[in-house]
Each structure stands twice: as C-alpha cells, then as structure tokens.
Amino acid sequence: MAYCPTAFASDTAGSTRLSQGLDQIFNKGAFWGKQVQLAWENGGEKYTILEPVAGGKGMDIVAYETGTGKRSVEVSAAQLTPAGATAPIDVQEYSWSADGKKLLVFTNAKKVWREYTRGDYWVFDTAAATAEGRLTKLGGDAPESTLMFATFSPDGSHVAWVRANNIYVEGLATRKITQLTTDGSADIINGTSDWVNEEEFFLRNCLRWSPDSQLIAFWQFDQSGVGEYTLINDTDQEYPVTFKYKYPQPGTTNSAVRVGIVAVAGGATRWAKLAGDPRQNYVAQMDWAGNSEGVLIEYVDRAQKTNQFVWANAGTGETRLVAEDTDKTWVDVFPVDWAGKGKSAGAGAEPALKDAMFLSERDGWRHEYRLDLKTGQPRLVTKFEGDVLVKSAVDQAGEWFYFLASPDDAVRQYLYRSRLDGKGSPERVTPADEPGVHAYDIAPNGKWAVHRSSTADRPTRIEIVSLPDHKVVRTLVDGGDLAAKVQPLLGSKTEFFKVPVGNGITLDGYMIKPPDFDPNKKYPVLVYVYGEPWEATVLDVWGGSRRLVHGLIAEEGYLVVSFDNEGTPAPKGREWRKSVYGAIGVLSSEQQAEAIRELAKERRYIDTSRMAIWGWSGGASTTLNVMFRYPGVFSTGMAVAPVADERHYDSIYQERYMGLPTENVKGYHDGSPINFAEGLEGHLLIIHGSGDDNVHFQGTELLINRLVELGKPIDFMDYPNRTHGLGEGKGTPFHVFSLLTRYLEEHVTAGGVAR
Fold this sequence. Notes:
Elements: H1 13-27, E1 38-41, E2 46-52, E3 59-65, E4 71-75, E5 93-96, E6 102-112, E7 115-125, E8 135-137, E9 147-152, E10 158-163, E11 166-171, E12 177-179, E13 188-190, H2 195-201, E14 207-209, E15 215-222, E16 228-233, E17 241-246, E18 256-263, E19 270-271, E20 281-288, E21 294-301, E22 306-313, E23 319-326, E24 337-339, E25 355-360, E26 367-371, E27 378-380, E28 390-395, E29 400-405, E30 414-419, E31 427-428, E32 437-442, E33 448-455, E34 458-466, E35 472-477, H3 480-486, E36 494-500, E37 506-512, E38 521-528, H4 545-555, E39 559-564, H5 574-578, H6 586-602, E40 606-616, H7 618-629, E41 636-640, H8 651-658, H9 665-671, E42 683-689, H10 697-710, E43 715-719, H11 732-747, E44 753-754
Parallel strand pairs: 38-39, 38-40, 40-41, 41-42, 42-43
Antiparallel strand pairs: 1-2, 2-3, 3-4, 5-6, 6-7, 7-8, 7-9, 9-10, 10-11, 11-12, 13-15, 14-15, 15-18, 16-17, 18-19, 20-21, 21-22, 22-23, 24-25, 25-26, 26-27, 28-29, 29-30, 30-31, 32-33, 33-34, 34-35, 36-37, 37-39, 38-44
Helix pairs in contact: 1-4, 1-11, 6-7
C-alpha cells in the first residue's frame, strides 16, 4: 500500500514541538553553521577569505597575514564587476595562481550528478596594466555554464579547462584558445570522468599540469558498450520524458580507461602503454612524478585486489612497474603525496624524481609508506599500532608527515605527525584536552592550519592554529551562537558505550536519552544504522541536521541508538574492516541484531517490544536485512533509498566488496534483502526518489513486487524525480523527515512506562 502523508497521528504537544523543530531545521535553515572558504597564499604566510561588502553587493576577497592578522582587501567586489554589469560576479569558488598574481573565479555553477562542476570562469590579473585587462572571462564564445575544472598552469601563463568532453588551453596573455583533444563525444570522455568512476574513485577533474607547464596528462574514458540506464521524468512536462546515461552493474561492461599526455601547444596525444584490457582495469589515481619526465599511475585490476604503481614516460608512453600493493580482499585507493626536495642536477635539468607517499594495509594497519620510484622499495613512515584515517599534509621543509588517527579511541580523530624518514613514533599534535573529531587544512609551508573541531553535541568551531604547537592565533567561527541555538533540540548529551556481540567482538555505540529520562522506566528505541564499509555512524562529531532530528526524537521519549558493526571504516585494523568481504549485508545485520539484544540485557530500561530501526542508502539495505533476516527484533523499519538486490548496484562499489557475481553467487544472494523478504514481520516503510541516479528506483520496485507476491503489507513513498539525497524541490527534506518521525510515532509508542 502507498503511505499517504497526512497530519500527525496525534495532536499532542510533543508532536507539535517535533513538527516545529523539523520546520526550523529544514524549512527555515535556523541551524545552519557558518562556512569559511579559505585559500592559502605565499605558502601559508597569508590567507584569503570571502567577506560580504558592508552595505553593498557582492563579496570582497580579503587577505590576512596569518601571524599578525593584518587585514587588507586583496580583490574588491567592485573589481570583480564585469564591464557594463551592475553587480559583481557571484564568487562560488576561487583559487590563486602559484605566484599569487592571478585569481581564478568560478561562477554560474550548474550541477553535474552530485557536484556543481560546470559553470563560467573569470581571471582577475592583479598585475594587469589597465583596469579593462584585469577581469576577463575564459572560454571565448563558449555557451554559458559549459566550462569545467579550469586550472592554472604552474607558471600562471595558461588555464586548462574541459568543455563537452574535450580539453582546451587558453593563454592568458594572448587569449588564444587551443583545443587539445577533438574526439570528445557522448561516449569518449576526456579530462573528466564517467558516472561510476566519479562516484567511486572521486574522479572529477581528470587533467594534470606538468611541473614545467608544457604538458597535460589526462584520463580518457570510452563508455561505448556500457549498459545504458533510463530515468523517467513523469512530472516536468505534459508527457513523460526520459534521460539515459551509462551505468555499469556488477559483472557487466565497464568503460575502457587510458592515460594520455599532450603538449600545451597542441599535437598528437601520447598514450601510456598500460598492460591488460582497459575495460578490466582502473586508473584510480594519476599525477606527475615530481618532474615533467613522466606520471605515476595507480593501476587497479577489476577485482580491486591489486594496486600497481606504474611510471609512464611522458615522451614515449613506455611504462614500468615500480611496486604493487595487494590484498586478498580489496585494496583501498588514496591519492599519492610526494616527499623529497626534487632539486635539479644542474642548470636546465629536470628536478629529480620525488618519493611517492602511499597508504597500505600490508602489515595489518593502514600505514603510510614512502616509495622510492627508482628502486621500488617502500619504507614505513608511520610506526605505531593504529590506522591512518586521513592524510593531512607533507611538510617538505620540516620533513614531517601529518595525518589523522585515533589509535586508542575509534570514535574520535586527532592530528598526529611522523618523521618522513620513518624514525621514531608518531607524535600527537592535537592537545590532549580537546576531545571530538578534528580536521585540518595545513598550509603548504607546514607552519599553519585551519583547524575544524566538533563533538556529537557541539557544532563545528573553526580557527587558525600554528604548528606544531597548536596555538590558536585566530578564531574564524566560534560556533558558540549556534551551540546555544541548538541546545534545546539536542535531547540530552550523547553517551558512548561498548557492547559485546560474541566471538570476542565488541562494537562501539552511542545513545541519546530523553531529557527527563528515568532509569526505573522502560523506553522505546530507535536504532540508526549504516553498517557498510563506506561510513561509520558512531563518531564524536557534530552530525548537523541528523543530530538535531535525533535529539527531537529523544525529546519525544525515545532512546536513539547506533552501532558500528565489523566492516565499517573504524580505525580498528585491517581485519576489522575487511571481515565483511564477499558478504556485505550478512555480518552487519547479524551484529546489529545481536548488539541491540545484548544492550537490552544490560540496560533493563530498554523496552524490546517497542523498537524501530532506520537507515539511508547502505543503511537502508541493512535495515531491510535486519527486518527480513531477524524478524521480531524490531517491530518497525524505515528504509530510505535502499539497495534491495546487490546485482543492480554499480560495478566498482559492489565488486570491490563482493567480488564478481559469477564468482560469488551465494554472497550476492545472501547479502541482498530481496531474497529474504518472506521473513518480514511488523511495519515497514520504504522511501525512494524515482530520479535516483545512484541507487536506482528499479531495486525498490523489484522488492515491492516480491513483497506483493508474498502478501506482505508495507508502506511506500515515492518522491518524483528526486535523486539519492532527496534534496530537490521546495519542502522535500522537511517532508521526508516528517514522514519518518510520524511513521515512528504511529507504530512505536513514545515515552517511558513503568517496568
């Protein structure tokens, strides 16, 4: 049956507060935190940020000396006003040339899949002789909002960009535009990515300038022969219209990928001579190897068990295998950083090859290694029993590698540093008295950083700190005002705990209790779940709107709980993360069901007759697997945009964690909720957007067919033409969460009751 949203089931004061709170969060935007768009200059001795013009239009780009805080307007909104225009450019992104003399401004952005990556670019030249020559639009007579990934050459003389799947270079002094590729089409993609490589390897800007500014290396994808998916739009016109794009499912044809190198002056492309079938391998990462002689390619086989580091000669296309990283399950791929000064051997000589810095789990932990590109010998940099969570920076001058880790507490994240020569143990840089999750944008000179920190109950604070002493030199966003505003919606403080699930395994979890919690009463539970390798939910980090919604639900009289099962990306070592290989959905649903049962034994105030579970995307799949495979544990489930059948998700993600469908038939069967739908008991709400290009509506339709066949009553809500995040259309997020909370209240009675 379709679930038709109406008014709240009960006209209680609690429900009214919940509705008002959701309205404040999603419709009025009352709790949006302030954002800071900052760019480092002069290696970090100066930075620029966007500031609104007092009493005027537009934004000034304002510079601050990092150490002293001395302020100056670097580029004014007036200077960013095109000739004949009445208003300045709407600056959506900006970047500086390496010499700090030219500014590249991105505006008029249009969405391409998930990100706003297509638009218009302008260059502001601070050294131009005349005002007329200072602000110029790139692209010549190109149609509006058609340029992508405009990037300065290292010497600041040119800008490269992509349009209609071809690569162009524009000389800033001459305004001459040179088209470097000519075969771009619906199937041949130069300089950017196909759908699946963008989604899973984050490949968007797929062109790389050589250090000497003479060459460009780029990805080319040939998606001819890839299966075509059709999205149907029933509402925007009088008759339905269709949109078709290439989307490879597990075991089907992938794009053929190769690496090209072309001279900025134009001419023939030199192709890297990579071994093997280009449709059975991925170019997961690629960059110039410290000089302009060649590029280093991370070449991953289709099974994603081997990552080969391949050096390709820019002049000949010849390649050699430098080293490889292997795993019996899958290899995770991260961008390479570079270490070493790369000094020239003599006048006019190319800089020496730098060492590549890469992450590997070869010793059981995710550690950073330094790879000599000539000998192929890796050297361990991070010597500790723990995982590198995020690579933050390589301080070349100080010879330090900065990274995020939390070896003793998986729910938090701190800054550490290790010597580039691998000597000694890592040092913690984040002060010991600052809990939570921390992130850093470290300046190129390694002396300063933008520091963002938050906890589960405190919104993000943003400040400039000096390194390595971590002294705060300037606060950019205090977060105090937002913290005060959100306090009434938090429910109560987030409590972190651990729960055993058998076989010596203990899961991290959190709980948010009602503000008037009484341990002598029994309370209903809402479990929020993800459960797959892509995301952890149990983190001491500000969760934004989701944290506020959970706080509102706790205020209604629910215990809000979450667990991170094995296979989630917690810093607990390789075995923890890789334990789910070939069985996505199986172990997660087992451990999620066992975790709430064990917690209920320990905490007698949990009412096991009133328990619900919900999740989005992979979390929705886990929700379905728990509801179907472990009937009776939860009386109610709510699944938003689930993968119901793993055979119908994208090739890169599903094959990475499950292998090929022909080689793991049982795994694909057992991990797919649709194959266990007969186990459904209780209430189930499924929500999906019909325009979801990521997790297709097809899977939910197949699941509904199966549930109908089984005679299982469910509730279902289709959001027409919305994508995976259900963010399109006025009022949509408010509507989605109103539906979720109402469904919870209707089927799981709120409030504590006497034992």
